[in-house]
Amino acid sequence: MKNIVLDSGDIINKIKRISIEIIEKNLKEEEIYIFGVLPNGKYLSEQINIFFKKKSKIKFKTFFIDIDKTSLSINKIIPEPNPIKLKNKVIILIDDVINSGATLMYSINKLLDYSPKEIQIAVLIERNYKSFPLTPDFKGLELSTAKSEHVEVSIDKSPKVLIK
User: Fold this and answer.
1) What CATH number is given to the structural domain containing 61?
2) Residue 20 burial class via C-beta count within 10 angstroms: exposed 0-12, middle 13-18, buried 19 and up
3) For the segment 112-147, what is each residue's pLDDT rounded down to a tens digit?
4) Contact at 8 Å (CB) between 43 and 155?
5) What three-state secondary structure class fits 68?
6) Using CA atoms, how far apart are residues 13 and 34, in angstroms rounded to an integer?
């Protein structure tokens, strides 16, 4: 059985709120680098970027992290970042759901190679079963679910968040 937790309108509202919070926290920054974890972090990053362009004068550059979720290794970052430009800059790492935190932890490990000023985490859904000491700076919704339940973010013509 699937229960819809957020429908497409709810998701857009959460993304707008997350976007506003990111802008407010980073008002003094001239440039921010967004890294979305594929696949769903791409959709979230793109939507956040659209909102930023309407509401902020901060320059944003978007990248996507392709991570093998089985081996937790980074396959590639698209496009290839310039380490010199990322040094001492704010990086926003975006994913759809934080479960154990492993995907974000391994992504952060790679992002540290660029010597950022700060890494902030934004997620659409936060669950309470983390294995790593990660707390998102920005979240759309915190869900208390049974460990056996699966939270699925479906990004299609009508995005939604489901619990299975």
Assistant:
1) 3.40.50.2020
2) middle
3) 999 999 999 999 999 877 778 899 999 999 987 767
4) yes
5) strand
6) 19
- What residues pair up with 118 in beta bridges, in sequence order? 90
Helix (H) or strand (E) holding 155: none
**pLDDT of 24-60, one tens digit each?**
999 999 999 999 999 999 999 999 999 998 989 999 9
Question: How, if at all, do strands 3-6 and 160-163 pair?
Answer: antiparallel
Range of the domain at 154: 3-21+31-163
Q: Quick check: is 76 in a domain?
A: yes
Q: State the alpha helices, DSSP H only, in the chain.
A: 8-25, 40-55, 83-86, 102-111
Angle formed by the axes of helices 40-55 and 8-25, to 10°? 60
Read off the pTM. 0.92
| Interatomic CA distance for residues 128 and 145, integer angstroms | 8
